[in-house]
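Exercise 7. Predict the joint structure of the components listed below.
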Amino acid sequence: MSLHHTFSALGSGALALALGMVACSDPVEQTARRHQASSAPATAPKTPTYDVTSLPTGEPLVAQLTSPPNVPPPTNRTKPAKVIVNLAVKEVVLPMADGVQYAYWTFGGTVPGSFIRVRQGDLVEFHLHNDATNKMPHNIDLHAVTGPGGGAASSFTAPGHVSQFSFRALNPGLFIYHCATAPVPMHVANGMYGMILVEPPEGLPPVDHEYYVMEGEFYTKGKYHAPGLQPFDMEKGIEERPTYVVFNGAEGSLLGDRALKAYVGDTVRIFFGVGGPNLTSSFHVIGEVFDRVYQEGGSHFQENVQTTLVPAGGAAIAEFKVEVPGTYSLVDHSLFRAFNQGAVGALKVSGPEDVFLYSGKQEETASASEAVPAAKPDALVLAAAVTPSKLTKDEQIAAGKTLFAGTCAACHQPTGKGLPGSIPPLAGSDFLIKNEKERVIGIVLGGLTGQVKVNGNVFNSVMPPWGHLGDDDLANVLTYVFNSWGNDQGTVAPSEVARARRGAAGAGI
Amino acid sequence: MTRFRLLGSGLAVVLATAGPARARPLRAPAGMALVGPGSYSPLYPASPAERTVAVRAFLLDRKPVTNREFLSFVRAAPEWRRDGIKRVFADDGYLSQWATPDSLGPGVRPASPVTNVSWFAAKAYCAARSARLPTEREWELAARANESGPDGSGDAAWTARILEFYSQPATSPSLRDVGTSRPNFWGVYDLHGLVWEWIYDFGASLVSSDSRDKGAADPNVFCGAAGADSRDPADYASFMRIAFRSSLEASYTTNRLGFRCARDAQETP
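Solution:
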């Protein structure tokens, strides 16, 4: 929250944004716009600083794109220019949470996609590359585009090809872009969204930090935190029952070392968007008040806002000054999303404390009511001490079968036969028979990369490590593998997994 | 419809639908399966009268064309080698996964489906075999069958499996061999779960039969209203196929686009 209204000059600038369109509109529209303007706060409208009837002059510029949470620097231009944007669609497997992977479809390799920054009046020459390694056709609908489909039809591109189209950045504001290829909700649910900022001619007021954050939800086959590569679940999507609601594509992408940073006294601007595909966000920073919010990414701002509502396919610009050091959580204030589905980020503010702004806890005493007894600590200790009962071999196999189906079968197949040429079989595998049990446990814990020979065939793939699964889970799944599809290789006890884990740690793996 | 299959002989014998009195057995040559006759409901009916389209019986390759098979073809027809083909017939990616213009190299599995082939090249390959590319209707009819019946569209587990294939990444450099999955009801392998496939009339997926004239068709693929005109807005797999076909030009090649051939079913007495 700002202590002083240092940006009072902004009102006139924002109004100019609203009027920037006049030069290119027809007379009827001009009248309508003037009418709108007259109901806005009384400030003299600025003359538009560009003319769309003539093309920008000068050498074309190549737009600098950034990955989230970074934002390209201001354009700092006094005139519109021709700007070339090269954006590549990439289908990539990335972590969605600890131990959870997802096959994301992305603009530029990240979720959200690369941030694009241009200036009002710019002629944007857009090149959409669809990588040859991709499986799907893709396109882009930029909400900043005035033209059919926001560029969707003009940018529709098969894998291994490039499309080019051009548009004029007529309206200033913060806009999202997204893939609009059928089935559109699936492309968006797989991460195909990002943002483009069209600066007004006078630019945005300088701040100390600009950050790029987008919220989106994901619909996975497995439950929240179910491990492994999780496929998209269409039914959950149609029912709007997301598994994850996250900032910047993955749980924890703005936590720990990756938290946003600022120093006491700094001004922060967050370009916040919602990719959706379905949810509307109640964007809030716990312990801060937005000094200024350009609601819906438009030209006017509201002041002193606690929580701003950002629609799916919409955006907002939030500005605030940080005065008190500490960690501030970014949340969707629809709180189950924050608490149970991942919608939490952090802004770490360092610097000296000022007890006149925030004191910290000054005193704690017993409350007047003594009716609430303290919880018995013994109960907690007991709960933690209980170990799971030992399973029989059949129980282990049954438990392991479930885990195998959800985690291993995607590659090794439900039949245990693997995939010729890429995934080695587990059924009747001489590799499993030839190798010590310890080595097999070690492979599951630590993964395996490189050539192996199984039943006379050479495989050269990557198996990810599964060490994040518990000793019981791994013992069960290995027992299942050792006793299925004709295999008969005994059982694996949790203690053997634990021992292998300790051995691996000792060996420095 | 009555249907018999002689297992192991490579031949399928089917009685046509007209009834026992007029039934005539139809034979499929080795490597091909007899599909249909049948009918299905396209995602975007061409007109209200065509909510259901009938498809005559036809012959379809049981498996997609492999690298090995396509290599023999270009050895016999050098004008279709990647260093001999005219640019108008294929883009730069044509057969780019092969080590040389007439050898696969160690990174390419001979029995995995050939990809990075243009529509022109696929059509020429089939013609050299006295066959043709399947039409969209034929391909869609064949692909509607699950393992147990001609119409798997009500089988939620089966449709979910198809969709999962589409959401799997294409990061693995080599494709698995053809024919290693389970055949469908017609005895056809790998219509789902391995590669996209060229069809003869890929540009007609929506409206126009001219692949260069897609202007009228495209809006259906993009906008949010795409679901509104369609038979079943939850049929995501069909949407993806239509979108994919619509993104193509006949000279295009992609890493995950292969083909198989078809032939009219010759009724033999």
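Discussion. The interface with chain B takes residues 91-93, 103, 132-137, 139, 141, 149, 152-153, 156-161, 180-184, 186, 190, 221, 231-232, 234-235, 238, 419-422, 461 of chain A (CB under 8 Å).
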